[in-house]
Design brief:
The complex is a heterotrimer of chains A (283), B (433) and C (307). Chain A has 14 helices and two strands; from the N terminus they run αααααααααααααββα. Chain C is built from 13 helices and no strands. Classes of the chains: A mainly alpha (283), B alpha/beta (433), C mainly alpha (307). Chains A and C meet through helix 1, helix 4, helix 5, helix 6 and helix 7 of A and helix 1, helix 4, helix 5, helix 6 and helix 7 of C. Chain A: It is a multi-pass membrane protein.
Chain lengths: 283, 433, 307
């Protein structure tokens, strides 16, 4: 590669940084504000909203009271519940979705289009609109106030199937045909060829499943209102009481609830990076 | 510690005898678990501990849902015949709708018990078609809080605490304007439950308007009358020049007052605990809710009660619990303190007032008397209508539009049309049953 | 591995028209049938039980069997209801604005954040972070930020700009919802496009660099064609999720002021959860699903990348 091309790349890199950093800051500004608010004591959150002064961003005193209160209350348990539910939703959901995506991309059978249409239609259905009748069925099936009741709806996720199928389609069929000729089973093709080639889309599909579960609010309220299985978004909403909203604790809960995905995302960014390295070796 | 336990036990024995008439525990088996669906996370913890101590055969599992989700959760779960809910918090104006849908048990058998323990206003709040369908727990009232410092510095005299000192709305808004102009608080005036029918109905009726629902079953909307329009202009103008804040929802209003940004603040009993615990402590006061000059004094009333689900398979235990929470003085006091709401059970009132005295001795000095006067003479229930949910939803939205400066005639005509359509629909659906 | 896994299709291969049967199709062997059954069964069972069957039950709910009313009376009711008709209009307007903004920004950021720049993973993560906050809560944060006397207007005033009536003016409120939804969504959709761009072989860029192509030409001739599958995914998924939005509306505006943000899904959920009119809600749900199906079908038909 020519010397000047490298230099050009570095220059555009610095230019990109001028755009990327402000965009990133705008993205997290509301959360930073919530973080600062959660560190304020008493009624300070609403004392310096407007006009903009340095007090709007610097608390009079920093206090961890909200975090102590939140972590010693029922919220702590709900955060654990959320993590458990999200973990199983992602792992089971990913496996089911990857299998379906593989069949729709790699297997050639009549009716494939119809099955794919079913998958697509399934994610066009507003889940909140069918939640009430579905929750009645779940209660009849004995799934009320269980982890299974919370996890199951995430398993049938047409969007993650759609995503994986889109990526699996890019894997040349010649690969699987060759492997089949070498005596590899279909599951072997799926497990040994497709999955290892699709780390980044798998992370993407995992993200879809995680977000579905982490954002879930109405469903857990309907099917799992018992304290032992309560999830974080519901527990956070509980800080809004009739007699007033405890914004300090609510924001502390929100910060804690987003800290867990933040850590996971930073971990999986590394996964993305690996994918970059491997795509470099593809040539 | 030991002495307190003994005292509790003694009170427990006495209370149980009065209220539930010692139900014998079924022999064998573990305790029976009943589920209590409510929007007051934490408020009933002490009551339940007490109840379980006295009723070893019953466990109570709380399913608390966020306050603004209670209506939808009740509707979703009881309409599908969910047998896992035994006891449920009930908002009195929605009672008629719940009864019509068959969600609750008829508690006529408790009529005498209610008569002997509860205030008449409270009993009325749970009565539909002449029969009680739930147990009233709290009642409510409106007060005018004020920021002492903001008023004084603006040269506005502090309002007095008793019925005789009650200000007219004109007087309050004059003072509020002075506060705004002097800049001693950002907003001269604010309403805690802003845009909600509960808070605005008394003002409407004091100005001579009707409640908005009329006819024998209170199913005929009447919200585009001349008096409603007068009120609507008044309400809209509060916000037009920034005397009161736009774009601040009821959840944020207590914070606005507590952080010293509001001069006069129309709120309720539950605001006492919040204000007393804020940075404003010692710098605020309570006055009676204002009235319109030349009009009657009208105050709001009613608060949550406790009902028994018609689908419950454990109604005996559920009833024992519902009675304990609402009628047993010990139970009522524990729940009322958490919410700072006045109890319906007359025996619990003195303890409630003692509690207020403890929380904010100076500010609440006249509150006991005021509560009594308001409840006896001025309290006005919300309409008892199977269409109340539709009515409240539509009107709260209309009030919000007025606050944001929409055209009065268009808003009220629109609300009237929406209500007519929705209540016709309601009748049509009821005809199917 | 010697062969490039994904040959980006040349831009001209934007075939529209009905999908043609695969030329490789031969008699499907029993072995493929068994495999298909094995791989698809869990997903198909889950989707039928958890999505399709409850939707079909909504059809039953929306038709008032056993009453005196006409079979389609619930549909004629919602179509005569100005609130419902208004929600259709608002949803359409919202979709027309929000989708191009979100996808355009997501694409621009994806291109930007696949360049070599310091700490790129950190910037990507921070831009993605809003999706990790439960929307029921993040909307409350925005509710405070967007108050007329809130920090957002504080910033505007400090910059010499006038205050904006974010959520209190019927002319601005929908735009504010667009902002909040984009704040949540752009980083999310960007992530999928980043993954897609990563899969385009770097050799293509290097070759065109040597040929003297500039950034825009590379974007047109390499990035965009190479992204056709992920882009179709993002387009469809984003369109659908924006058509079904309601949590921010519930917290921020409850459909107001004056119905200006009354999105169809909020309208339906109000009927189902607050008013208890499950029949009208089911009818509305079916109308919504029909609209989404039509829009997505058009997208599939018109856009490359479906195969």
């Amino acid at each position: 590669m020519a010397e000047h091309a490298l230099r050009r790349e570095r220059r555009t890199g610095n230019l990109s940084l001028i755009v990327a950093v402000p965009v990133a800051l705008v993205s997290i500004a509301p959360l930073l504000w919530a973080l600062i608010s959660s560190l304020r004591a008493g009624d300070e959150i609403f004392a310096h909203l407007y006009p903009l002064t340095w007090r709007t961003v610097v608390p009079e005193s920093v206090s961890l009271d909200n975090y102590v209160a939140v972590l010693t209350g029922p919220f702590a348990m709900s955060l654990v519940n959320s993590v458990i539910v999200a973990f199983f939703s992602v792992t089971i959901g990913l496996f089911v979705a990857a299998m379906a995506g593989f069949a729709l991309a790699a297997l050639d059978f009549p009716g494939r289009g119809a099955v794919f249409a079913l998958m697509v239609v399934s994610f066009l259905i507003p889940f909140e609109a069918i939640a009430i009748p579905l929750s009645t069925s779940f209660r009849d099936w004995g799934l009320a106030n269980t982890y299974a009741g919370l996890i199951l709806p995430a398993i049938g996720n047409g969007l993650s199937i759609f995503l994986l199928r889109q990526f699996f389609l890019g894997i040349p069929t010649s690969l699987s045909e060759a492997a089949r000729l070498d005596g590899l089973s279909w599951f072997g093709v799926f497990w040994r060829i497709y999955l290892p080639l699709s780390k980044a889309p798998l992370v993407g599909a995992g993200l879809i499943l995680f977000v579905f579960q982490w954002q879930s609010f109405l469903w857990p309220l309907l099917i799992a209102p018992a304290p032992s299985v309560r999830v974080a978004p519901v527990a956070i909403a509980d800080f809004a009481q009739e007699a007033g909203v405890d914004y300090g604790q609510m924001f502390a809960g929100a910060i804690l609830a987003s800290a867990i995905p933040l850590i996971l995302l930073l971990m999986f960014q590394r996964q993305f990076t690996n994918s970059l390295a491997s795509s470099g070796s593809k040539e | 510690m030991r002495a307190r336990l003994l005292r509790r036990a003694a009170a427990a024995a006495a209370g149980l005898a009065v209220v539930a008439g010692c139900a014998a525990a079924p022999a064998g088996d573990g305790p029976e678990t009943i589920v209590f669906l409510n929007p007051h996370a934490g408020a009933y913890d002490a009551v339940i501990a007490e109840f379980e101590a006295r009723n070893p055969d019953v466990r109570v599992e709380q399913q608390s849902v966020p306050f603004d989700q209670m209506v939808s959760q009740t509707q979703a779960r009881l309409a599908s015949g969910d047998t896992s809910v035994d006891v449920v918090s009930v908002d009195p104006p929605r009672l008629a709708g719940m009864v019509a849908q068959g969600f609750l048990t008829d508690e006529s058998a408790s009529e005498d018990l209610l008569e002997s323990t509860s205030s008449q206003v409270g009993i009325n709040s749970v009565t539909v078609d002449g029969r009680p369908w739930a147990y009233p727990l709290w009642t409510s009232d409106a007060f005018l809080f004020y920021n002492r410092d903001a008023l004084t510095r603006a040269g506005v005299p502090l309002p007095g605490p008793s019925d005789a000192d009650r200000l007219t709305w004109d007087q309050v808004l004059d003072g509020a304007r002075k506060v705004s102009e002097a800049g001693t608080a950002r907003y001269g005036f604010g309403i805690e439950q802003v845009d909600r029918y509960y808070a605005l109905q008394p003002i409407l009726e004091s100005m001579g308007a009707g409640p908005g629902l009329e006819g024998p079953d209170e199913l005929t909307p009447a919200v585009d009358t001349e008096q409603w329009r007068q009120f609507a202009h008044w309400y809209r103008d509060l916000y037009a020049d920034g005397l009161a804040p736009r774009g601040v929802d009821p959840g944020q209003m207590p914070e606005l007052f507590a952080s010293g940004q509001v001069g006069f603040f129309l709120t309720g009993a539950s605001g006492i605990g919040r204000a007393a615990g804020s940075d404003l402590a010692g710098n605020w006061g309570i006055a009676p809710a204002p009235y319109a000059a030349g009009g009657p004094v009208v105050t709001p009333t009613d608060s949550w009660g406790v009902g028994i689900s018609a689908y419950s398979e454990k109604q005996e235990a559920a009833r024992r619990f519902a009675r304990f929470v609402t009628l047993d003085p010990q139970g009522v006091i524990a729940a009322s303190q958490e919410m700072t709401l006045p109890p319906v059970a007359t025996a619990a009132m003195p303890a409630y007032l003692d509690y207020l005295d403890e929380v904010a001795p100076d500010e609440t000095a006249g509150v006991g008397e005021l509560l009594e006067t308001d409840l006896e003479r001025y309290a006005r229930h919300r309409p008892t209508s199977v269409g109340y949910v539709q009515f409240e939803t539509t009107m709260n939205r209309a009030f919000g539009d007025l606050r944001n400066g929409a055209d009065v005639d268009a808003v009220l005509a629109g609300a009237q049309a929406t209500l007519t359509r929705q209540l016709d629909r309601q009748r049509e659906l009821a005809g199917d049953r | 591995m010697a062969t490039p896994l994904r040959e980006p299709a040349p831009a001209r291969e934007r075939t529209a028209g009905p999908p043609t049967p695969s030329p490789r199709r031969r008699r499907t062997s029993r072995d493929v049938w068994t495999a298909a059954l094995f791989f698809l069964a869990p997903a198909v069972v889950a989707l039928l039980a958890l999505r399709i069957i409850p939707t079909l039950s909504a059809v039953g709910t929306s038709i008032p069997f056993g009453t005196d009313r006409a079979l389609l009376s619930n549909f004629s009711y919602i179509f005569s209801d100005p609130d419902f008709l208004g929600s259709l209009r608002v949803t359409l307007l919202f979709s027309l604005v929000v989708n191009p903004i979100q996808i355009g920004l997501a694409l621009a950021l994806a291109v930007l954040l696949t360049k070599k720049l310091p700490a790129v993973g950190l910037w990507r993560t921070l831009i993605l972070l809003p999706i990790a906050v439960p929307q029921a809560v993040s909307a409350i944060i925005w509710l405070v930020l967007m108050r007329p006397d809130g920090p957002l207007n504080g910033v505007a005033n400090a910059l010499g700009l006038p205050s904006v009536p974010w959520l209190v003016s019927p002319d601005v409120a929908l735009a504010s919802i667009v902002i909040v939804c984009s704040w949540v969504g752009v980083g999310y959709w960007m992530t999928f496009l980043v993954t897609g761009i990563r899969d385009i072989p770097t050799s293509l860029y290097e070759a065109s660099s040597i040929d003297g192509a500039n950034g825009w030409q590379q974007f047109r001739s390499i990035t965009l064609p190479g992204l056709r599958r992920p882009l179709l995914f993002v387009l469809v998924a984003d369109t659908v999720s924006n058509l079904l939005i309601f949590a921010p509306v519930r917290v921020l505006t409850q459909g107001g002021p004056q119905g200006s943000t009354n999105m169809i899904m909020y309208d339906i959920s109000e009927r189902a959860y607050t008013l208890g009119d499950t029949q009208a809600a089911s009818a509305g749900t079916l109308v919504l699903v029909a609209i989404v199906v039509v829009i997505v079908a058009i997208q599939f038909r018109l856009l490359p990348g479906k195969d």
